[in-house]
Automatic annotation (TrEMBL):
The lineage of its organism: Eukaryota, Fungi, Dikarya, Ascomycota, Pezizomycotina. This is TRI14-like protein. CDD domains: MALA (cd12811). Pfam families: Mala_s_1-like. It comes from the Eukaryota. Residues 1-20 form the signal peptide. Keywords: Signal. InterPro entries: Mala_s_1-like (IPR054550). It comes from Dactylonectria macrodidyma.
Amino acid sequence: MIRSPFWMLALASFPALSSCVRHRCPSPAGNLSVSAFQLYPENADFDPTRCVAYFSALYNSSVAVYDPYQNTVVDVIEFPGLSGNPLLHASGVQLDPFNRLSVVVNAGSSFNTGGRDISGNNWLVKYSLQEDRVLWQYNLTSVTAGAYSGFQDIEHDRHGNTFVLGTFPTSLIRVTADGKKATPWYLGPRSDPITAGFTGLVNIGDALVVSNVTDGQLYRFDITSAQGTPVRIPLTTAQGRIGGPIDGVYLPPRYAGKVILVSDNVNGTIVLRSSDAKWKTAERLGVIPNDLLAQGGSTVASIQIGDRVYAVTEFFGDSQQIVPGTLAGNRSAFPLIDISTQVEQLLC
C-alpha cells in the first residue's frame, strides 16, 4: 500500500480487527460529511468486520478507507502503476467472499466521451486487506480485444468469482477467483455510435440483478449459468422506465434481499421491492429526491453503515475546474445523506 499524505491520514484511528459479525457495527446519527480533498466517490462498500467504508476515489484511481464513527478518512489504498494516472478512473469497489477487496480501475475516456472513445486499458484489481498488498490485476480490455469498455461495477458469486459490468457497450466479464482466467460471460449488441447500457448490479444469491440505462429496466441473470442470459424483471406497480439516468444498484443488508436501491444521477434513489426476495417481479415504491442536484450533485450509489442507509453523491462538474498539479477539482467535503427514514416510509 502507498500512503497518501495529502489527505492527512489519521492512521491511529483505524479500528482494530475483531470477530465482528454483520450488523454489529454501530449506526451513525443522521447525515455525514466526509472531509477528504478530492475524494469524489464513485462507488462504496461497507466492511462489517472492520467497521469502515471503502470509497473509490474516481479521479485519483485509489480507494479511501473511511471511519464513520470518527468521521475521518483513515487510510488511502493506491495501486502501483495505476493510481495517479490521468487516463484512469476508479469506480467499482467491493469486498469479495474471502475478505479481499475488488476494485475496477477503468479508462476514463469511455465515460468522458459518452462512449465515443472506448480506447484504453481497464483493470480489475484484487487487494489483500490482511496482507496490505495487491494480489493480482487483470486487464479486462484484453478479454474482448478492446471491443467492449466502460467497466464500472462488480459483484461476486459464493466461490469468489468476480463479475465485472461494462457500460460501453453492455457487457459482463467473469474473472476467476484466482485471477488467472477471464471470459466474456455476456456481451450485449454493439451499435454505432456506441451508447450506454448496463450501469450497476447486485447479487441476490442465485442471480444477478442488473440495471440498464438504455431502457430504464432491471434484468435478472442466473449466476450459475455458463453464459449469461438477461431476463427483464417486470414491474407490478407501473409501466415504463424505473428512472432516468440510472447508475448504481444496491441491496441493503437490513432488508434480507427484499429491497433494491437504484441510484438515479438526477432524480435520487429509487426504491424497489420483491416481497419474496426472488426478484422475478418488482414493485417500484417511489424515489427519494436528490437534494443536492441544485449544487451539482449526482446520486451515484448507496451504502448501509450499521443499520442506516446513505446516498452517495458525486460532483462530476468539478472535473471542469481541475486544481493545477492534480487530477481533480477543489472539493474537500463530500456529503453522505441519511435516507433511512425515507426508505422506511416507502416500505410502509
